[in-house]
Design a protein that fits this description.
Oligomer: single chain
Structural class: mainly beta
Helix content: under 10%
Shape: elongated
Strand content: over 45%
Number of helices: 2
Number of strands: 24
Length: about 325
């Protein structure tokens, strides 16, 4: 009987120890929530300066900006997460240009080394015609259904633009992957060390300078001008092209699904580049030195490619 009691106590002690160990290793999440409603005046711009943040912007049904900001610290020790959370600072204000939102990490707010995972999450609703400017270092941006001007400057940030039928977008990104989907309007993109995907567009005017990262145009409709440096250019299932200019330097250019391209004229200049053209389109090209021409029905080539030290593949 005594042995059974000792065995029972041993099992109970083991369970308590296991529970303490499990809880000690579990990530503790501490959140500070900030919510605010700001009336939006005509011609005001939303200006965001963010660091280690996730920014989500969707349209509102009125002329107000609805903000929900979550300041988050994660650590296996809750007390440490609570201390480190003090390093997350934010600003909400207005100036002559518009509404200002900022967040940052101020290390001197904490007297010891910050070991928690810190993050700020913006959930914002704005009038659809409100211009947006964002400068972001480290994090994510997702914007949906905004119709006014957009300016992005990002480093180490993933970008998603969805159903954006706007006037103008200017995007400069470094080490940032980007997806532009179901959009229209004028887009200018300068991207270095990141992949860019442009999908299912309608009446888009796209200008891209892509350095050390790939670009994909898929189900594209509109005008496009692309300069690629050490970057692959891929085009799939093109819907309707008004004009397409590609300059590739040390970059491959690949067209897939040529069924919609037979009606277009091509002007290809290849310098130290191999050109591969699938049948039956190959017979329509006339070759001369480093130039290959395919005449369109109206006599004017719409697709112009200059390839320097990179292959061209029309599959």
């Amino acid at each position: 009987m005594k042995k059974l009691i000792i065995l029972g106590l041993y099992i109970l002690f083991a369970k308590i120890l296991l529970a303490q160990t499990t809880n000690a290793g579990k990530v503790q999440v501490v959140t500070k929530l900030v919510q605010k409603t700001i009336p939006v005046q005509a011609n005001q711009t939303l200006n965001i300066t963010a660091k280690k943040a996730k920014i989500m912007i969707t349209p509102s049904s009125d002329n107000q900006l609805q903000l929900k900001m979550s300041l988050i610290a994660k650590h296996t020790q809750r007390e440490k997460a609570e201390k480190d959370l003090q390093a997350l600072i934010y600003e909400i204000g207005e100036d002559n240009s518009g509404i200002i939102l900022k967040n940052d990490i101020q290390k001197d707010k904490v007297n010891e080394k910050i070991t928690s995972l810190l993050k700020t999450v913006y959930e914002i609703q704005i009038p659809t015609n409100m211009p947006v400017k964002i400068h972001q270092n480290y994090g994510e941006i997702q914007i949906e259904k905004v119709k006014s001007n957009l300016t992005l400057n990002t480093n180490y940030t993933s970008i998603k633009l969805l159903e954006m039928h706007l006037d103008k977008a200017d995007i400069e990104s470094n080490y940032s992957d980007m997806e532009i989907k179901d959009c229209s309007g004028k887009y200018t993109v300068v991207s270095s060390y990141g992949n860019t995907k442009v999908r299912n567009t309608s009446n888009m005017d796209f200008t891209g300078k892509i350095n050390y990262g790939d670009i994909l145009l898929e189900t594209f409709s509109g005008d496009a001008s692309i300069t690629a440096n050490y970057s692959d250019v891929k085009l799939e299932s093109i819907k309707e092209i008004k004009r397409l200019n590609i300059i590739s330097n040390y970059s491959d250019v690949v067209f897939k699904d040529l069924s919609n391209l037979a009606r277009y004229g091509f002007d290809i200049v290849n310098n130290f580049s191999d050109v591969s053209i699938a049948e039956p389109m190959r017979k329509d090209f006339v070759k001369s030195t480093n130039t290959m021409i395919k005449t369109a029905a109206n006599g004017t080539p719409i697709i112009k490619i200059i390839a320097n030290y990179g292959d061209i593949d029309l599959k």
